[in-house]
Design brief:
Layout (H helix, E strand, L loop, with lengths): L3 E5 L3 H9 L4 E5 L14 H13 L3 E6 L8 H14 L3 E4 L2 H10 L5 E3 L8 H10 L1 E4 L7 H14 L2 E8 L11 H4 L18 E4 L8 E5 L6 E3 L4 H7 L3 E4 L6 H17 L5 H17 L5 E2 L7 H7 L10 E14 L2 E11 L3 E2 L3 E6 L4 E6 L3 E3 L2 E3 L1 E2 L4 E6 L13 E5 L11 H16 L1 H14 L34 E6 L13 E7 L2 H8 L4 H4 L3 E5 L9 H13 L4 E4 L21 E4 L8 H9 L4 E3 L6 H12 L11 E8 L4 E3 L11 E3 L5 E6 L4 E5 L3 E2 L4 H6 L4 E5 L5 H12 L19
Parallel strand pairs: 1-2, 1-11, 2-3, 3-4, 4-5, 5-6, 6-7, 7-11, 10-12, 23-24, 23-35, 24-25, 25-26, 26-27, 27-28, 28-29, 29-35
Antiparallel strand pairs: 7-10, 8-9, 8-31, 13-14, 13-22, 14-21, 15-20, 16-17, 16-22, 18-19, 18-21, 29-34, 30-33, 31-32, 32-33
Helix pairs in contact: 1-9, 2-12, 3-13, 4-17, 5-6, 6-8, 9-10, 17-18
Length: 759
């Protein structure tokens, strides 16, 4: 089987390097809506020129529009879709369910690929995305070869290709289920803004009599880079269609070297001469060594205890680049009492020369400072080059570095800046200029199309048309009316690990219990013990966001058993879990099931809400990452039925209290065993919980929007969720009462982005 080699490009020179080194396809970010928002956006003229260039060589270009979209960004998103449709890209990579909904409705000619940010990790997820119209799925990186093969078999049946990451950086959390960067800093990884909290150094905290005392720590969640170079035969046998290299923020040299390595390895599979094949693989490995990544591992492909130990090196920081030196001494140099320089003494681990770009990393505080190596000495004598093993003295005079002081325990890394001065080839530069001229001529029909679409779904009013689509207000109440009067009474839902939590006192009436579906709770249901707790409280079974492939049959059986016992209400942790039930996109239900969506669906706009309402969901939780303006504008549009056929049948809710998972990972790393509580470099505390199918990191203090409860009710939400399932329920009930009351000082808590701005 011939597998496609898919390369990243964050710059035009990187795109050219990828094609030159043998990539079959290249993926690029679309302006403003790609999940590498820290990269410079391409212009549409550049994208058009690159597509024309690639197609001229028989290669493909995929465009990543894989960021979550806030409600006020929908007009610009529609405009971007319209422009992409004109460009005739080979596919659009998407995450947001609202974008999929809009693309299928208004741009059906656009092939869609489901991003890895959709956290698809089993066959029912792939089946669901196929039903939505995706022709390719990029599953989670956390799959082993056996799971990939099983999922690929189902994908072939439903006509979907699998595209798999085989090289590059790995996140500790499942992509799509990481909320750390967003809830603790407002920078959403689902919107390309991740500040990489998994790369920080953490300390374990002791328990028992010395509880809270700091113990040894390290880079506990900093994953080594993925390298699937040795797994290509197995991936081909498993039915993988495309091998994807991560790195749209990487340099031209990184892209070129990595693509060349995998091109060599793929070509070596066809080589009959054993010596020639061995030489090609040796050269491929050498190319990866030059590419300046982190320590490499084979990822989750060969799942097992030995492999788990290889995924994280907690003693080593997550810096990219080559470890250049270990710092031995730091000394501020003064003249007339003023620090004028800082002198470093370091033991080299690799060769250095003047002009190298270096990064100084202080490991205890996790601070990082970059500088260009101008001058250094060896044995007191000036040198321009030094060899590994030598001790060097480096004098720093940059103003921003003069504040460095001992004690300072750290390392120096050489950073790859090889792509900084790369130029676009003259031929491609001419194409870009031509495309800029063509784009100007096509502007009027594009804007007319966008106005027609946005008007149809109520995104702006006709009076705003002269201003252009990007300036239109998000929603002007032009959707159809549902005829339902607003009911300011709101339901309170309680999520708990046991039905006994209903005996606790809360400052609001609990109308529904959310109970995790697991072996223990299923036994309670089968033994008839749940009924005595419920009385007038309704029960909804909560499914987890992560269901490993091998566990799907257990959940099928459990759901079937519950339905036989007359339980009909379920909250899904992933949209793909709708495949457990019959009401899928127009199918008539065999057994009526009341389905709700958890906040893990990552819903930020009314188009996404509409897509799920049309699939038969009776309730949906808004994304936990939302800010208040996004929530209110999306609520208003959805409640007015803007482009929604079943809005009046779907309730909207929001988690207002709990300890949501900041990381959700598959990795049961050896250094986690017996460890529970940890502290960040900034003093924040978290606890780690190992579960059957996942490992989660939770905040020590709760997330709470209880102070905004009355406001949320008045704005039109139908239900608010309080989650006490993670820690002691009695203690949680007391905290909830204190946070609800305005008469006492509120206990420590955090509110995510609600009162700020989601970036």
């Amino acid at each position: 089987m011939n597998m496609e080699l898919l390369a990243p490009a964050g710059t035009v020179p990187a795109f050219e390097a990828a094609l030159a080194e043998g990539a079959d396809a290249v993926y690029l970010g679309t302006p403003a809506f790609n999940a590498r928002a820290l990269a410079r956006d391409f212009s549409f003229a550049e994208i058009a020129a690159m597509i024309e260039t690639a197609h001229g060589q028989g290669k493909k270009v995929y465009l990543a529009m894989n960021s979550l979209v806030k409600e006020d960004e929908l007009p610009r998103a529609v405009e971007t879709l319209a422009r992409i449709a004109r460009l005739q890209a080979d596919a659009l990579i998407v995450q947001d369910l609202g974008l999929i909904h809009l693309a299928r409705r208004f741009f059906p000619e656009l092939p869609l690929h489901a991003s890895t940010l959709m956290a698809t990790h089993n066959s029912i997820g792939v089946e669901y995305l196929a039903a939505l119209g995706c022709s390719r799925v990029v599953p989670a990186r956390e799959l082993d070869l056996e799971e990939i093969a099983r999922i690929s078999t189902l994908a072939a049946v439903v006509g979907v290709e699998l595209e798999l990451f085989v090289h590059g950086a790995m996140c500790f959390s499942y992509s799509g289920l990481c909320r750390f960067s967003s809830l603790h800093g407002g920078k959403s990884s689902l919107r390309g803004q991740c500040v990489q909290p998994c790369r920080r150094r953490y300390q374990w905290l002791s328990s028992g009599k010395s509880a809270g005392a700091a113990q040894e720590g390290g880079y506990l969640f900093s994953m080594n880079d993925l390298s699937g170079l040795g797994e290509l035969d197995a991936l081909a046998e498993a039915g993988v269609a495309s091998l994807k290299i991560e790195g749209r923020l990487k340099s031209v040299a990184y892209v070129g070297n990595t693509v060349r390595a995998y091109r060599l390895a793929l070509d070596a599979r066809k080589e009959q001469d054993h010596k020639r094949r061995a030489d090609m693989l040796k050269e491929a490995r050498a190319c990866l060594d030059v590419a300046m990544g982190r320590r490499r591992s084979s990822g989750f492909f060969p799942l097992g205890a030995a492999q788990e130990a290889d995924l994280i090196s907690p003693e080593q920081s997550g810096n990219t680049g080559t470890l250049a030196a270990v710092l031995r001494k730091m000394e501020p140099l003064r003249q007339q009492g003023k620090v004028t320089a800082v002198q470093l003494t370091a033991q080299l681990r690799t060769d250095l020369r003047a002009g190298d770009r270096l990064r100084l990393h202080e490991e205890r505080s996790d601070s990082r400072s970059s500088f260009t190596l101008r001058h250094f000495r060896v044995a007191g004598k000036p040198r321009r080059e030094a060899r590994a093993g030598e001790s060097v003295e480096i004098r720093l005079t940059d103003t921003k570095l003069l504040g460095l002081r001992p004690p300072f325990a750290g390392k120096i890394y050489r950073v790859d800046v090889s792509g900084r001065k790369e130029q676009v080839s003259p031929a491609l530069a001419r194409l870009i200029t031509q495309q800029e001229q063509l784009a100007a001529k096509a502007e009027t029909p594009v804007r007319k199309l966008v106005q027609d679409i946005a008007g149809e779904i109520g995104l702006f009013s006709p009076q705003s048309e002269q201003a252009g689509p990007q300036s239109f207000p998000t929603w002007q109440g032009r959707g159809k009316k549902t005829g339902r009067q607003r009911d300011t009474r709101i339901e309170w839902w309680l999520k708990a690990s046991s039905p006994e939590a209903l005996r606790l006192r809360f400052p609001f009436p609990v109308s529904r219990l959310l109970l995790d579906l697991n072996a223990e709770s299923l036994d309670l249901a089968q033994n008839g013990l749940l009924r005595k707790f419920l009385r007038s409280t309704r029960l909804t079974w909560a499914l987890p966001a992560v269901m490993l492939e091998e566990r799907l049959d257990w959940y099928r059986h459990a759901i079937s058993r519950l339905q036989a016992l007359s339980f009909s209400s379920f909250q899904l942790g992933h949209p793909g879990q709708i495949r457990f039930f019959s009401q899928v996109a127009g199918e008539e239900p065999e057994r009526a099931a009341e389905l709700f969506g958890d906040f893990s669906f990552n819903l930020l706009n009314h188009s996404a809400l509409a897509a799920l309402a049309e699939q038969g969901f009776r309730g949906l939780q808004f994304s936990l990452e939302t800010d208040r303006p996004t929530l209110m504008t999306a609520l208003a549009a959805f409640k007015a039925g803007a482009g929604v056929s079943r809005a009046d049948r779907c309730k909207l809710g929001l988690l207002v209290y709990g300890r949501p998972a900041l990381f959700t990972s598959r990795l049961q790393a050896p250094h986690f065993k017996g460890r529970h509580t940890l502290k960040s470099p900034h003093g924040e505390r978290y606890f780690l919980k190992q579960q059957q199918d996942s490992v989660c990191v939770y905040p020590q203090i709760p997330f709470s929007l209880l102070a905004h409860g009355r406001d949320l009710s008045a704005q039109g939400l139908d239900y608010l969720v309080v989650d006490i399932s993670r820690v002691n329920p009695k203690r949680e009930a007391a905290l909830i009462a204190a946070l609800w009351s305005a008469k006492v000082e509120a206990p420590p808590h955090f509110s995510g982005n609600y009162s700020g701005v989601l970036a």
